[in-house]
Amino acid sequence: MSGLRGLALLLVFQVAGEGVVHALALPFPGPVVGMVLLLPALRWAWVREPVGAAAEFLLGHLSLLFVPVGVGVITHLHLVSEYGVRLLAAIVLSTWIGMATTALVLRALLRRQAESDSHG
Known about the structure:
- This protein has about 120 residues and is mainly α.
- It is about 85% helix and about 0% strand.
- Helix 1 (about 1-25) crosses helix 3 (about 45-60) and helix 4 runs antiparallel to helix 5.
- The longest helix is centred in the last third of the chain and has 43 residues, at about 75-120.
- The protein is extended.
């Protein structure tokens, strides 16, 4: 039951994000704004615990979420053969940029934590 409540909360935050994007005409996807709204809400146990249960369920069945993507690739194999090299380059480059950004942010946060530990 907690997992269903968590899934409902995730959907509520997604809809809230969509509403904010449409109301303010923001150039961001609604689900991304919903995740930003969810982040501070995770401080409260009544949000964190059900969302955690839903996340565990979804991660446990993550492989099933790749089935539609696989079917789409097989269905549009002619597009993959035509644009495959460009797709591969975009995937590799965006993955590298994401990993590099994550590493830089982590390094900055660890440096800030070490400075605050040495001063405090």
